[in-house]
């Protein structure tokens, strides 16, 4: 018998030359890049249309708050629908107007003492600089005048151009406010009809799933709006009351500012807390400022460790790290509006995706609050977490 070598198979060509694992990784990679590119284009379009998108989103958030209120007026007090909608809008406008009036009236009443105390504090600061660094008051004044002289007050300078841009900004704010009110009005009048039109844009087979998931997200959004107002109210009352008890001027405007800024997570509390401590430092001295700082930290700790887990935890089932990252990303992409919308958008998307992934739209096409936010220890909640 003659020995014959085994035939050698030719090397693989084309797709056969790539291992199955690499083919799977490549398939995931290009799909991931396509999704990221589509998301980037969507974000770019939203940024370009921000003067329209931001007022509409604000209108949606306000509708999430006022729709249950108008429904309560219709069910409990037997208001006609048009009267319930009108009452809800007038309540919103009245509350905002009252808050603005309180702040303006308090600031105007305290302006003379604010001016006098600021001058005294400035003189004390000059004396401290002179004592600490051995500088005469005339040298400090000359240094300040030189610094002011270096500022560019020409027509093309940043200060003048920034001042001129205030007019356009005010016009944009006014136009945005009108668009918010119009959007909110139509959301209250024909919100279900608008949503049915949006659902019809999707393929017929996907409409039931999209409608059920969006309803679940909307329930989460309405619950978040109510809870956020409660948390902001506690922050504003707590810090404002501490300022009042410590004898810090402008305690009411401080409380209102904290209430409004609390809708911006992390950043709002930090800025308004620093403002309260600064006012206490200027008016009442370092000791009261330290007490004010301790009070601000106490209120923030109570909110973060007691209210947020007990109340906000049931409204937004999102990990705190995800909230921090979402707020940071929203601030980088859209500034202050991005930080304001980050948490509600993440909460909506979280519930939307989880509802779709669990397939609950097949059995519960029209979810209720108990379906979307079950108690933390219930079996349905545990099943959702495993899912």
Dominant shape: globular
**Total of DSSP H or I helical runs spanning 4+ residues:** 12
Order of helices and strands: HHHHHHHHHHHH
Class computed from helices, strands and strand pairing: mainly alpha
Helix content: over 70%
* Separation, N- and C-terminal Cα atoms: 65 Å
Count of individual beta strands: 0
- The whole-angstrom Rg is 29 Å
Largest sheet: none
Strand coverage percent: under 5%
Unreliably modeled segments: 157-167, 376-387
| Average pLDDT number | 79
What does this structure look like?
Mean pLDDT is 79; it is low at 157-167 and 376-387. By secondary structure, this protein is mainly α. Among the domains are: 52-151, no CATH class; 212-373 and 380-387, no CATH class. It has helices spanning 20-48, 50-76, 81-133, 137-150, 158-199, 207-245, 251-261, 267-284, 286-315, 320-358, 369-372, 379-386. The chain crosses the membrane at residues 28-46, 52-70, 82-104, 173-198, 229-248, 254-278, 285-302, 322-353. InterPro entries: AI-2E-like.
Structural descriptors:
disordered C terminus, 12 helices, 81% helix
In terms of topology, how is this protein built?
Blueprint: H1 20-48, H2 50-76, H3 81-133, H4 137-150, H5 158-199, H6 207-245, H7 251-261, H8 267-284, H9 286-315, H10 320-358, H11 369-372, H12 379-386
Helix pairs in contact: 2-3, 2-5, 2-6, 6-7, 6-9, 6-10, 7-8, 8-9
